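Dear Dr. H.,

I hope your travels went smoothly. While you were away I took the liberty of generating a structure for the chain from your last submission, since the lab meeting agenda had it listed for discussion. I wanted you to have the full record in hand beforehand rather than looking at slides cold. The sequence, exactly as received, is reproduced here:
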Amino acid sequence: MTFCEACHARLGMGERFAMSVAGPLAGFALAVPAAALCVFAKTDAMFLLASGLVVMNLLTSAANLLPVYPLDGGHATEAALRGLVGGRAIGEYAAIMVSGACLTALVGASVWYGGDINLVGRLNIAFNLLMLVGGNLARVMRSD
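The corresponding predicted structure, in token form, is as follows:
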């Protein structure tokens, strides 16, 4: 067990949830001054830079909140499910199942609405994310 895992094991479910959503919330908070800079930008270059920062912070924070297990949203889902079901292993299994369902829905929506343009790229991303979820499932199963 690493130092980080030992510290994380001592946190309560509410603390884990708060720690998991703190990063994405900071990203959303950083988008606010950048949006204000967009409003008061005096040049096109300043506006483009600020609007790029807004979009980048909003998209990365929103993607990080997806309930896919390696991301912060997955850890927040795990903390919430652990608090609901009361067991470490059951909470982790449930979080991994939610991750798999979310990935399936994302890939399905991507293929359905995107047609077959870049299908190979989307399937590659889905496969890599599925491998992350599978690796987390294997880690949980080894720890039992």
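Two observations you may find useful: The mean pLDDT is 77. Helices lie at 3-9, 13-40, 44-64, 72-85, 88-114, 119-143.

With kind regards,
E. W.
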